[in-house]
Amino acid sequence: MHNNHYNLLRLLFAVAVIFSHSFELLGFLDPLERLSSAMSAGTIGVCGFFILSGYLTAQSWSHEPRPLAFLKKRALRLYPAFVVASALSVLVVGPLGASTLHYFGEWSPYKFFADLIGLRQPRTPAVFSGSPVPSVNGSMWTITFELRCYLMLTVLGLCGVMKRRWAVLAIALVVNFGAMYGAPHQRGEEGLALLGVSGFMIWFASMYLAGVCFYVFRERIPLCAPFAVCALIVFVAALFAPQIVTRLATSTTGAYLLFYAGQLQSPWLAKLRTRDDLSYGLYLYGWPVTQLMAHWLPSIAPLLAFACVTAICVPLAFASWRLIEAPALRLKRAMAPRGRLAAE
């Protein structure tokens, strides 16, 4: 087992997303977003996922810089659980919240399979008509951007950029500058497209490349308590600043805090390490379970909904990990060179 707490951090990020959706799908603002007017707990969780993903996949590429093997490993991590969660969302959750009596008559299997291939949020007939976000699984919208980030890293690797750390930093700075001004303020917006690239892609790529930079400069970045305290102060202050400042702070001081916490050595933290990574399952099933709860119990308090949804999703995530994700990861490890495990 790796001597870090990245599984625990991913778990916290997934819980943060469920926390935000427990408010959003009941018609309330996330408490952090209401206080800061800049970023919700769920948005911080998603940013954390992308930053950590950039770090770990850069590590994976450095261990085995072969594009086909790299993409096969990434596909094994994303697709199996995504396919199952999409099928359950469309075939089970969708009919339970359908706004039409002819749900399956209006449902398009062709669109369903196209969405699976692109790792996109599944399209369905009208569902959850009274919901603030009438979607069968709104969490899935970010997964396709994760896939695009993997493709971006593959291109950078093939072009030799990953061997030149200063070139990686230069690209990350340019993309972060674009994200500061071009990223959308909320999911329903498109943001400012640059060179044909959507504002959301630029934003997610900025977080992902921040993680890549922390990997390629890992030996030159001291992770210590005094710097972490300063980073925490700056990050918290940035939450109450204009969004341009918040975005810059997230990919810099926020990323620093993430990797400091991930590498922190403590006996009590060591006890929290687990081989079971429930974060992906929690992320995939949190939205549909919350949507059903908000549909059936519209007057439930958001915090109570959050507690109930988390309790329901933990066994779903555990089943996803043990029955789908872990077996796929064993295939991924079998592809690694002898005596070497590829990073996740």
Overview features:
mainly alpha; disordered C terminus; 344 residues; 14 helices; globular
What does this entry show, briefly?
The chain is mainly α. Helices cover 68% and strands 0% of the residues. The protein contains 14 helices and no strands.
SSE blueprint and pairings:
Elements lengths: L5 H19 L6 H6 L4 H23 L3 H30 L6 H4 L2 H9 L25 H16 L6 H18 L16 H18 L8 H14 L4 H21 L3 H4 L8 H18 L5 H33 L10
Helix pairs in contact: 1-3, 1-13, 1-14, 3-7, 3-9, 3-11, 4-7, 4-13, 4-14, 7-9, 8-9, 8-11, 9-11, 10-11, 13-14
Q: Percent helix among the residues?
A: 55-70%
Largest sheet: none
Give the ordered list of helices and strands: HHHHHHHHHHHHHH
Classification by helices and strands: mainly alpha
Which overall shape is indicated by the principal axes computed on the Cα atoms? Answer: globular
Work out the radius of gyration: 20 Å
Describe the structure.
By secondary structure, the chain is mainly α. It has helices at residues 6-24, 31-36, 41-63, 67-96, 103-106, 109-117, 143-158, 165-182, 199-216, 225-238, 243-263, 267-270, 279-296, 302-334. Helix 1 (6-24) runs antiparallel to helix 14 (302-334), helix 3 packs parallel to helix 7 and helix 3 crosses helix 9. The longest helix is centred in the C-terminal third of the chain and has 33 residues, at 302-334.
